[in-house]
Amino acid sequence: MAPEAINPDDPRIEHRFLKINDDITYHYMLAKPQTENPPPLGTVLLLHGWPDIGMGWRFQVLYLLSLGLQVIVPDLLGYGQTSAPDAFVEYSLRKMSAHMAHLVRDVVPDPSNHPVILGGHDWGAFLAWRLAIYHPDLFCGVFSFTIPFFPPAPTVVTLDDFVQQNPIFGYQLQNANGEAEAIGERHLRGFINTMHRGVSSDGESAFDPYVGLIEDRLANVGPSPLMTPEIFEHYVQEFSRHGLHGPMNWYRTRSINGEDETQLAAAPTNKYAKTTTTTPTKFQFPSIPAMLVMAGKDSVLSPQMAAGQEQYFSAGLKSEVIADASHWAMTHQPDEANRLIGEFVKQVLGL
């Protein structure tokens, strides 16, 4: 039996809004232990991926509460009740890291005396790795589902060049050029079901990672096996607010992110890793514990992509694979996902 999940109207969840500037406001869910005495042992910030919303962590929130932790789960930029700027330049990892740092400081005014652990999945994991680099003093640990750590590169690699080198990511070109956006909005229900493992009665998917969405198959896709009808309708409602332009904007930022990260790649290693060496070597992640969880049945992001990750983590990397999980590990195999998160959190906090 799967662990208990929160639902959109769950009374144990507060829905809050944080204004970042005149144009950007974030919606986030906040879950607190039922009693304030003792106070929460720490806070966990959970960042969702594409195409998802904060509710993608629905099986993890109550479990983390049971450990005495406070949980923050935002809808990321472009999603749900959070703002969805038209301009893709607003979706750089550097800018969104600043947004998340603002959110953490708003909920946890003194992170130096209250441990904050960062978790992410898919694009949210990519953001989590960068957030920890840009704001290393905010977090005491970070975990990622399905996305390995890719160190900042000294040169900019365009999306075209990236896909040419890695054809299995061909769908990213369709996402960036507007084609997937148009297809998905014409068939929103089929899009959501497809991206969350729904298939036709013949077992055929309407998504091919080498190509992207296949429009003439979307009408025949059945319900996602990862969602109850209530959760599915919630996803339809939330993706109907702004359409798919915001979520697809994340795929239009590769060059912008690359330009930002050339500065990180050129920075002295010890600025981020807090080491004593003054000799620049390979980029080092901040010296906090980290965990990477890959999914054995992820059709794009295979566990083999995690090979050699340990070299970037001076404080150690806990590497795990959920063998029977698809890309959506937290909802596909929630018991195992929670077990690994719990072990990591307890290790970081010394529980």
UniProtKB/TrEMBL annotation:
Taxonomy, superkingdom: Eukaryota
Pfam assignment, any one: Abhydrolase_1
Family annotation (Gene3D superfamilies): alpha/beta hydrolase (3.40.50.1820)
GO molecular function: hydrolase activity
SUPFAM superfamilies membership: alpha/beta-Hydrolases (SSF53474)
InterPro entries listed in its UniProt record: AB_hydrolase_1 (IPR000073), AB_hydrolase_fold (IPR029058), Epox_hydrolase-like (IPR000639)
Keywords on record: Hydrolase
UniProt source species: Podospora didyma
Protein name, as recorded: Alpha/Beta hydrolase protein
Domain called AB hydrolase-1: residue spans: 43-329
Protein family: Belongs to the AB hydrolase superfamily. Epoxide hydrolase family.
Keyword Transcription: no
